Amino acid sequence: EVQLVESGGDLVQPGRSLRLSCAASGFTFGNYAMHWVRQAPGKGLEWVSGLTWNSATLGYADSVKGRFAISRDNAKNSLYLQMNGLSAEDTAFYYCVKDPESVAGSHFDSWGQGTLVTVSS
Amino acid sequence: QSALTQPRSVSGSPGQSVTISCTGTSSDVGGHNYASWYQQHPGKAPKVMIYDVSKRPSGVPDRFSGSKSGNTASLTISGLQAEDEADYYCCSYAGSSYVFGTGTKVTVV
User: A68-82: string of b/e by CB count within 10 Å (b at 16+)?
Assistant: First the structure.
């Protein structure tokens, strides 16, 4: 069974940084592309960024470009999101999401339960 | 990338059919056969219900179906059941990114 467990969400002040982690199990992590998708409380879903199996970036949402960086460590079955220059607009649940393909797939086939990032002074 | 346009809400009685539309552009929905649909119950993570416009993952009931015409994808739930009450989001690959829809709340009345 695929399991994706996010961690690292916290209450942080505007302008500060935070690093999210996602621990994957139940599948061969190094064979699949992975993504981060976020959802502000009570709002819709927004794709944040994605990474191919061999760490080629699939891109970033315009709203986070230049501030966020996605990475992975296949030896540790882990996905990361480094978030810098945080603002209130980044307040959201951040989901770790599995792609069914090794590069950019057509959809997202497994989701973690999410970790909450709150940006507030 | 602008969010794909979905109706804010749709409703139906048990056993009825409802259809949710998802309108984008030729750069996303219209330009790729990669529309997908996600169901999200309150406090839960989204779950894929339809991918590649009309394919159903194993375990998803066949009362869920998808289609596409031009720049608009659609999700139809036939034989509506109480457990289908949830938020539904469409999504499309857009070349160098992915774009989600605005979301539709399905209410079973």
Answer: bebebebeebbbbbe
8 A C-beta contact, residue A79 and residue A34:
yes
The b-or-e profile of A87-97 (16+ CB within 10 A means b, else e) is eeebbbbbbbb
Between β-strands A110-111 and A3-7, what pairing exists: parallel, antiparallel or unpaired? unpaired
What the block records as the tokens of B75 is 């999700």
Distance of alpha carbon A82 from alpha carbon A60, whole angstroms: 12
State the distance between the two ends of chain A, measured CA to CA, in whole angstroms: 40
Q: What residues of A are in contact with residue B93 (Cβ under 8 Å)?
A: 104, 106
Per-residue pLDDT reduced to its tens digit, B22-76: 999 999 999 999 999 999 999 999 999 999 999 999 999 999 999 999 999 999 9
Interchain proximity A46–B34, CB inside 8 Å: no
Contact B91 A107 (CB under 8 A): yes
Please list every residue in chain B whose beta carbon sits closer than 8 Å to the beta carbon of residue A58. Answer: 96-97
For residues B101 and B109, what is the distance between their CA atoms, to the nearest angstrom? 24
Identify any residues that bridge with A82 across adjacent strands, giving them in sequence order: A19, A69
Q: Are B24 and B97 in contact (CB under 8 A)?
A: no
Q: Do A69 and A86 form a contact (C-beta atoms < 8 A)?
A: no
